[in-house]
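Worked Example 4.2. Consider the chain below.
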Amino acid sequence: MPDSTVTSRNGSSPSERSSSTDDPSAMEDGVARKEYAMEQIVGFWGEMASNWGINRTMAQIYALLYLSGSPQHTDAIMERLDISRGNANMNLRSLVEWNIVRKTRQTGSRKDFYVAEKDLWEATAQIIRERERREIRPVKEQLQACAKHLVREDERLDDRPADEQEMYVRLQDLIELVEVFESFSKALLPHVRRQNVPAIKRMMTFALTMTDADPDTRG
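Applying the procedure from the previous section yields the following structure tokens:
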């Protein structure tokens, strides 16, 4: 996802602003409790996404739309997250391109409204697919192009200078690592799309078993 953090007009993030919210235990009104919960979730969802290398603002907008019971227009999103119009438009456009948010219209309004994909399994599958297409695959292609530049198809690796041979071997190691991530994404994707929890758990169990069996991974 594009790297863009929350541009707060008052200098505070949603999670920071939520810290000043009244103690939820003292809230008896349902609306107040809902607002507090949404503020907390949107805040930590952005922090979590940032730790995973995902655009914080993009994640917060998706969380806000996912939790909202009705479509939201850009002005409402800007006010809720305290972000600029440019920041909101850029991230909404990205979310629409990733097919996890769609644009809609409301009768009697000229504004664009947005709704999130409510099926989290489908949204997760779309994120996996798009990250593989936009991030993993281009990296592999660039590395492969560099490797072909070092050793062309009509050349033998052993005929190249020693320093070029060493670089070529290191490039191949990088390509192999990227291919592992690519293969994992492709193997995981169909199970996520089918919501095949048992298969996903078996994959995780197998991976953990292999880790436990490897003496180099033991503490």
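Confidence is low (pLDDT under 50) at residues 1-12, 14-21. The helical segments are 14-18, 30-51, 56-67, 74-81, 85-97, 120-150, 162-193, 197-213. Compare this with Example 4.1 before moving on.
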